[in-house]
Amino acid sequence: MRRVLLSILFMVVTLSATEINIAVAANVSYAIDELKAEFVKTDPDTRVRVTLGSSGKLTAQIKNGAPYGLFMSANMKYPQALYDEKIAITKPIVYAEGTLAYLSVRKRDLSKGMALLQDPKIVKIAIANPKTAPYGKATVEALKKAKMYDSVKAKFVYGESISQTVSYAVTAAEIGIIAKSSLYSDKMTQFTEGENWVSMDPSLYTPIEQGIVLLKYGEQKRAYRAFYDFIFSERAAEIFKKYGYIIR
Predict the structure, then answer these.
(1) Which domain covers residue 25, as residue numbers?
(2) Which of 7, 73, 206, 224 lies 20 to 30 Å from 200 when distance is taken between CA atoms?
């Protein structure tokens, strides 16, 4: 009898729960679980399903009718395009600024900063593809601003996503220029700041503004607006900062 009652209770809770589907840029994958966990503390009847991917691919899916009610992009370009096409119902707003970092599996003299990339022992440098990834575009901008791009570009190994760039940095290259947020995942705890990784000077590149929009698909569901509002809360800001983002 007790098992029957528990089964009925579970069914009631399940049926009463609201499920929302959100599209999230890959670089946020390291922070999204903690953001979800914090959100459900105040909205326990909502289950958040996350689809991760590149901002460009997620945008294409959304334009083709994918059932997402909210989009967290890696830059402002894609949510702005969705807003211009009236697929997004809110103007894009910056929720965080991404930052870059150098990562090496081997301990190196990271006090040299960008000059380390010119070391003859550095044969391959992993970076995100600047044609498709905002972090790659920012990397190229920084190298050009430092007048080092031409001297190191032959060393580049391109990752098509943030996770692939991180993978190349730890397996196929002597050093990588990656999203700083990736360094706070559980899999990266063996790397030490100052020995294996260090932040890149943010003055070398245009701030990587990441934008969020509510989408027409979720217009009638209160839970989408609740999650959207949560992303701009003080608690969410603390989580983003913990993962290396800049909040203004």
Answers:
(1) 2-97+208-242
(2) 73
